Amino acid sequence: MKTFRIGGVHPAENKLSSGESIKPAGLPKVAVFPMGQHIGAPATPIVKKGDKVKVGTKIADAGGFVSAPIYSSVSGTVLKVDTVIDASGYAKPAVYITVEGDEWESSIDRSPDLVHIDKVYELEAKDIIEKIKEAGIVGMGGACFPTHVKLSPPPGSHPTCVIINAVECEPYLTSDHRLMLEHPDEILEGVALLMKAVNVNQAYIGIESNKPDAIQLMSDKAKVYHKFANIEVVPLKVKYPQGGEKQLIDAVIRRQVPAPPALPVSVGAIIQNVGTAYAVYEAVMKNKPLFERIVTVTGKSLSHPSNLLVRMGTPMQQLIDECGGLPEDTGKIIGGGPMMGKALLNTDVPICKGSSGVLIMNDKESKRSSVQPCIRCAKCVSACPMGLEPFLLSKLAEAENWERSEQEDVTSCIECGSCQFTCPSHRPLLDLIRQGKSTVMGIIRARHAK
Amino acid sequence: MNVILIAVLVLGAIGLIAALVLFLLSKQFAVKEDPRLGEVTEALPGANCGGCGFPGCGGLAAACVKAADAGSLEGLNCPVGGQPTMEKIASILGMQVEASAPKLAIVRCNGSCENRPRVIEFDGVRSCKVMNSSSMGETGCPYGCLGCGDCVSKCQFDAIKMNAETGLPEVDSSKCTACGACAKACPRHIIEIREVKGKKKMGVVVRCMNKDKGAVAMKACKAACIGCQKCVKVCAFDAIHVDSFLAYIDPSKCRNCRKCEQECPKNVIYGLNMPVLKPKASTDTKSPAVTTSMSKPSPASKPSVKSEPFKPTSTLMPVCQQMLLTPSASTPLPHPGKPTQKVDAPESYNSMSNLMPVCQQLLLKPKKTTAE
Amino acid sequence: MNKLTVSLSPHVHSGDSVSKNMYGVLIALVPALLCSFVYFGLGAILVTLVSVASCVLCEWAINKYMLKRTDTSVTDGSAILTGVLLAFNLPSNLPLWIVVIGAVFAIGVVKMTFGGLGCNLFNPALAGRAFLLISFPVQMTTWPKPMMGFFNLDAETGATPLALMKQVIKGGDQAAQAASELGNTDFLSMLTGNTGGCMGEVCELALLIGFFYMLYKKIITWHIPVSILATVFVFAGLLHIAKPEYPAPWLDLVSGGLMLGAIFMATDYVTSPMSKKGQLVYGIAIGFLTVVIRTWGAYPEGMSFAILIMNAFVPLINNYFKPKRFGEVVKK
Fold first, then answer.
1. Does the residue C265 lie in any domain?
2. How far is CA A175 from the centre of its chain?
3. Which residues of chain B from 136 to 175 reach within 8 Å of chain C, CB to CB?
4. By residue range, what is the domain housing residue C129?
C-alpha cells in the first residue's frame, strides 16, 4: 500500500464519531461571520445594521483575487458589524446576524436529486471556476485557501491530474469519512467538475486504509464514472501527516514538490479536499454558495461525539450543547484536529469555512508534560516528513540565529507537529520552529521588497 | 660540540628566514586603518553590549567615523557611556554633539494581576513572541503585556525586572540606558523609548495600549484606556491625542503638569518618577479645591520659608520641587516651623497636588536646584 | 469549569519519554546482565551494583550541590544506564574502589562537566572504561575465566580470544601457543560467551536479543549497529583473505566488545549522529577503526577507542550529513 516516503508518525486515531451519521445542527440565535475566514485579503462587508438577509444572501465581497465572498447561512436581520474573537485568538471584523425563521434564497436548488454527470460537460472550465469563485469556496481541509485560485494555475504550468484529499489523517476527525459514506455521488460529480475546470482526465482519491468502508464505496461508485472520467481511488497506509498537500502527492503519484516557492502544480497535481469537491458540486449544480459544512464535534469526555451539518457562524457552544454539553473537566477546546488545530479562548468562536472539527480535551489531556533536556535521540529527525532537523531548527530559533535557520530550510516546515509529537523530552520544538519560520519568512519578504 | 653548533646555526637560520618572511608579509598585507577608529574605540566603554544597535563597540566606532566624514553624528549614541562618551568621541572626530534629551524605556501597560485577571492558561514556551503568535495571551487583552519577560532577558544592564506581584516588567530608571533592546524584544510594542525630563527622568505616560472600544477594553482590564477624551480636554498644551480609543501623550509637548493624570477616570495616566498623587477628591469639590489651594498655600508657605534659612531665592520652589521629587522629603520642610498652615500633615498631598499648575510652571525650565 | 488552557499545536503527544527510552535500553541489557551473573558469579553482581550506585549517587550529588538544580532528576534512568554499561566494560574481578573511580570519572567528568544529560560529547561509560584502562592497565586486562563457581572471587584468569589473536598476529615465540589455544575456542562458545572477557561483552547472543528488543521497541534504528558489524566483517574478511593468520571475520564479530559496542555503546543517543546518512558514516568509520586498532594497534581491543574517536567527530558529521530534504531529488 502506498504512503509518503519521508518521516511520519502514528498518533492514536481516536475516531470516536466515525459511526455517527451526519445530523443537521440547530439554528443559532445569532450567527457571526468573521470576514477573514480564508487565506488572503479579508472580505469586505456589504451589509449594514438592520439589513434583512436570507439564507444564501451575500453579506461580504471578496477583498481581492486571493480572497472569497461570504454568504449568510441564516435568514434574519443584521445586528451589527463588529469584531469577534475567531480561532486565531484575536478579534477580527465580523458581521452579526440575528436569526429569524429560515428563509432561503429562491435561486438555490434545495431538491435532493442528483444532477447527473452529463450536465458537467455542458459547462466550460471558465464558467465552473467563475461559479466556484462566486460561491466563496475555499479549501475545506482547514487551510482555507480560495479554491478558484488553486484552479487557476500560473501560466506555464501543466496540471496532469486532480488529487482528492480524503485522507483525514488528523486523529478524532471523521467529517470527511462520513461525507464520503453519505454523499459519494455528489463528491464524484464534484471531482468531475474539478477535472473539467483544470482540463485534466485523471483524478485520484486518496483514502487512508483505516476507512475501508469508504474505500469500498467510493471505488464501486467511481466505476460508474469511468466512461466519463478516469477517477481512481487510491488506498493509503495510515500515517500522519498524509493529508499534507506535499505528502499526499508523494504518496499518490510518487513525485516530490520541490522546496517553496514551488507549488504542487509544478509536479502536475491539483489537490482538493473531498469536502471542497462536495461544495463545488453544490455550488455549480445546485447554485448553493458555501454556507454549510460538516463539523465533527468530539472528545473523550463528551457524551455524544457526532458529525453535524452546521450553518457557518454558529457558535461552538451550541454544537457542544447538542453533543451533550461541555464536560466539567474540560481543559482545552480545539478548533480542528489535535495535531494542527488551534486551542480556542472560549466557546463563542463561530464555525468558519475551515472548521473541520471541535475537539474537547479534559484537564489531564490538555497539559503538556515538563520539558527535559534534548537527548539528541534524532526521533524528530526521523519523524519530520519534510526531511528537516527539528532539534536544530528549534535551537537556532531559540538562539535567534535566523541566517542559519534559513540555510537549514526552516521555511520548508509544514508545521505538522510530528517532531513535537514524537519528542521523548517533550520539548516545544514546533513552538520555536514556528517562531523561526515566521521570522525568516519576514526577512525573506523584506529582502524581496527591496 | 659540532652538533650543538650546527643545531644552533640551523635553528637560527630558520628563525631569521621566518622573521624576514613575516616582516615582508606584514608590510605587504598591512590593512590601512583610520587612526581615529582606534581612538574612538578606545573612548567607548568596551562592553560590546550592542545597545547602540551595532554589533559591539567596534561597530559603533566605525559608524561614528563614517558619520563624521558625512558631517553629522546624529542618531549615534552609546547608551552606556551616555553624553560624556559621545562628547569625547565628538572631540576626537572634531565634531559637535547636540545635547540629547534623556530617554527612558517605559512600560505602557498597567494590566497587573489585579487589574486584568488571567482568564486563560498558556501552556508552552514562556516567551512573549511565542505567546503572541498563538493567541491573545493569558488575559482578555489583546494589546497588553504578556508577562513572559522577553524584555527582561534582553536587557544588558539589569534595568528591567519582572514584578512578581503585578506580573509586569518594571524599569529601573537609574539603570536604564534607553538602548531600546527591550522595546525591540516586545512583540506588542508596549515598551516605548521615551523622552523624559530632568535628572529624575520624569514624564507623564499613558500606561495602556488597548485600542478597543471602551466597553470591550473595560471588560478585559480595569486599568484600560477607554478613550473618554477627558485628558484631551484638560490638557492645555495639546499634548494628548486619542486614536482608536487610546490616548497618547506626546512627550515633546507634554509639560508634566499632571492635570490629565488627575482627570483620568481609569488611572491610566501615570506620572513617571513623580510622587504619588492622592486619589482625586470627589468631583463636586474639585474646582473650588484647586482655586483655594492655588491662593492659600502660596502666601501661607511664605512665612514658613522665611523663618527658615533654607531657600532664599524662589519661595515656592523648594516646596513643590521637594514634593515632586521625593514624597518623604516634603515633610521635613514645613515641620520645623510651627504647623500654622495647611501644608503640614501628609494629607496635604491633596491640596499640594492642586498646586501643580504653579509648580509645573516652575518645572518647565529645568533649572538645577540645590536641593539635589 | 476551570480556566481553559491554550497552547500551540500539536495538542497530543506520543507518550514517549526520556525515562521510557532509558529503561527500555536497561530492559534490553537484562539478558546480557543475567548471563554475566551466571558466568562470573558474585563478582559480576558486586561490580554492577557498585557501578550503578556510584553513578547515580555522583549524578545526584553534582546536581544538588554543585549545579544546584532542582528540576533534573536522577530517576530518568540515564545514570543507571551509564552504571550498567560501565560495569559491562569491566572485568568482574576488578577491585571495587577502581569501579567507583571509573563511575565518578564517567559521570562527574565526562557527563556533568558538559552540562549533564544530552550535553556530553563522549559516551560516559566508554570514557570511564578508557580512563580505567589507561590508569589501571593490569587490573583492567586480567579477565577471570567464566563458569568458575558462583562465589569464587579469586577465579583463575586467562587471556581473551582477542588477546590471543593479537599474539598470533604479532608472531614471535608465543604465537604458536596462542594459536593452539585460540583453536580451542570455537565460534559457538564465543557466541554464547563461554570465554574470558569483560562482564557484559562475552555473551553475544544475549546482546543480540537486546538488540532485537530495542529494534522492536523502536528505541534505536538498525543503521549504526548493522553498519559497524558489516564493516568489521568485510574489512576483517579482506584481511583474512590477504593474510590467513589474521582472524576469521566471523570470529572478529563475536569477540571482544564489538557486539556490546555496536549495539549499546555506539547507539547512545547523545553521542551519535542525528541523520541516517550520518549514522551510517559513523558506523562505517567505527568498524574500520576497530579493525585497524585490533590488527595494528597496541591494544588487543579497539572498539571503545574507535567509538570515542568517532564521538569527537559527531558534530562534524551532523554538519555535513543532513537528512534528505523533501523534494530535494525529484524522482518518478
1. yes
2. 11
3. 138
4. 18-140
Sequence length of chain A is 450
Nearest CA in chain C to B117: C3
Residues C132 and C172 in one domain: no
Mean pLDDT of C246-259: 84
Let me know if residue C8 belongs to a domain: no
Q: CB contact, 8 Å: B212 with chain A?
A: yes
Instruction: Report the CATH architecture of A117-285.
Output: 3-Layer(aba) Sandwich (3.40)
**Cell triple for A434:** 514556528
Which chain B residues are within 8 Å of C6, Cβ to Cβ? 120-123, 134-135, 138
Give the range among A84-88, A215-219, B266-270 with minimum mean pLDDT: A84-88
- Taking contacts as CB-CB distances below 8 angstroms, the residues of chain B near C13 are none
| C328 belongs to a structural domain | no
Chains contacting B with at least 3 CB pairs below 8 Å? A, C
- Which residues partner with A234 through β-bridges? A206
Residues C304 and C177 in one domain: yes
Q: Mind giving me the DSSP string for C268-300?
A: -STTS-SSHHHHHHHHHHHHHHHHHHHHHSSSS
Residues of A in contact with B133 (CB under 8 A): 434-435, 438
C152-155 LR contacts (CB < 8 Å, sep 24+): C152/C41, C153/C41, C153/C42, C153/C43, C153/C93, C154/C93, C155/C40, C155/C41, C155/C43, C155/C93
For B84, the grid coordinates are 560624556
Pick from B119, B121, B123, B244 the residue to mutate for testing the A interface (most A CBs within 10 Å).
B123
Chains A, B: CB pairs < 8 Å: 39
Supply the DSSP symbol for C109.
I
Look at A368 and B135 and tell me if their CB atoms are within 8 Å: no
Distance CA B333, CA A184 (A): 90
> Is B130 near chain A, with CB under 8 Å?
yes
pLDDT for position B125? 84
Chain-chain contact of A343 with B212 (C-beta, under 8 angstroms): no
User: Which residue positions in chain B have pLDDT lower than 50?
Assistant: 281-372
One domain, residues C22 and C59:
yes
Taking only the tens place, the pLDDT of each residue in A143-189 is 889 999 988 888 888 899 999 999 999 999 999 999 999 999 899 98
pTM for the whole thing? 0.82
Residue A437 has what pLDDT?
93
Q: What is the mean pLDDT of chain C?
A: 86
Asked if C116 is an interface residue toward chain A (Cβ–Cβ < 8 A), one would say yes
What local confidence, expressed as pLDDT, does residue C299 receive? 81
Determine, yes or no, domain membership for C22. Answer: yes
Chain C residues inside the 8 Å CB shell of A326: 1
pLDDT digits (tens, 9 = 90+) for C191-235: 777 777 788 887 888 999 999 999 999 999 999 999 999 999 999
Domain spanning A26-108+290-365: CATH 3.20.20.140: no
C3 interface with B at CB cutoff 8 Å: yes
Residues C26 and C101 in one domain: yes
Residue A298 with chain C: CB contacts under 8 Å: none
Q: How confident is the model at residue A361 (pLDDT cuts 50, 70, 90)?
A: very high
Q: Does B307 touch chain C (CB under 8 A)?
A: no
Are C251 and C306 within one domain?
Answer: yes
Q: Which domains does chain B have, with CATH numbers?
A: 35-92 (1.10.15), 103-272 (3.30.70.20), 283-364 (no CATH)
* pLDDT surpassing 90 at residue C283: yes
Phi-psi label, residue C50: left if phi above 0, alpha if psi -120 to 50, beta otherwise: alpha
Q: Which of residues 183-242 of A touch C (CB under 8 A)?
A: none
Contacts of C114 (CB under 8 A, 6+ apart): C120, C121
pLDDT confidence tier of residue A120, bands split at 50, 70 and 90: low
Q: Looking at the structure, do residues C316 and C170 belong to the same domain, yes or no?
A: yes
Q: How many domains does chain C have?
A: 2
Of the candidates B313, B314, B299, B351, the one whose C-alpha atom is nearest the C-alpha of residue B330 is B351
Q: What integer is the mean pLDDT of A59-79?
A: 92
Do C287 and C229 form a contact (C-beta atoms < 8 A)?
yes
